[in-house]
Design goal:
This protein is an alpha/beta fold. Helix 8 runs antiparallel to helix 9. Strands 1, 2, 3, 4, 5, 6, 7, 8, 9 and 10 form a ten-stranded mixed β-sheet that branches. The protein has two domains: 213 residues, Alpha-Beta Complex (Spore Coat Polysaccharide Biosynthesis Protein SpsA, Chain A); 100 residues, no CATH class.
Length: 336
Amino acid sequence: MHTNLNSLTPTLKVVVLSRNRPEYLIKSLHSVLESARLLPKSVTCNIEISDNSDSENIVELVAKQYPQVAINLRRPNITVINHIKSVVREANTDYLVVFHDDDVMKPRFLSTLHALLVSNPEAAAVGCNAYYMRNNVDTAASFMNQNKATILVDTKDKLLNSYFLIGKRGTSPFPGYMYQVKYIDDTCLDETKGGIHADVSFLLDIVQRGSIVLTSEILMSYRLHETNVNDSSTVAIQRGFLRYLNSQISIKKSQALQDFRYTIMLRWFREQHINIGSFTKWSHRQKIVFKYIIYELLKHLLRPDCRALHFQVMRDKYLGNLWAKLKVLRKVLRGD
């Protein structure tokens, strides 16, 4: 891959991944063009649609409404991960954004992330906060706590913490990143590294090359809808990704992975719709998982920070005065 690093004029390439969603693409593309207007005049910005549709509807629509925007056709069609992989491999630029056709940039998305990369030249990528959007309307929920200005992620553990650590989670959505191509020009998403969670393993590779800087400023809207390509929240998919992460010796003992395992088991248990009063009728697996959940819950309750809000609520609601006794017991057990 050739980049423009020796040029006096920095280049930014924004690629909008598209597949069969013209009604969303037009809104997304309009937001990208508006955001590009706020970039410094010294930055050359190239906007491209990478179309992986199974019809020519996108091509015809863009040619009619935005003839100045280039279209890269993916024919025959390829998988989602191979689509992103192709875009990364083809990048011939200093900075790269891989955006989704159903998401929307805020006006300051490109200028803010570009400024962050300029002020953090050692960063491989910078990412932003985002609102979840339903039915074309931003919800009150966001990916990250909005109280922190910037977060430096410079190790695998810190990256995993941002995804999985209970009470501390908060990271950018995958289309919310801008990359320095020199840090990613020989790495790509790999389906063997976590399946549809290959975006996370991709970032785990990147953070070993350069830091990742996250801003809590909300610079985009991330759409939630029934036609999302992947449902990454299913228990089976999450367990498969956890198995991959556990295969990485350097991060195997991460507290974030322990929290991720607890979250998966708790989700599985809830999906069983078990009658708590009929414990004797539970399957062996249900009993084992329930014991594991209680064990992990008590571990969290006895930890000094007792980080997670739902742990705190359960502690205050259900333990009451017993909490003071548990703290005394903890001191005895720890030999304090």
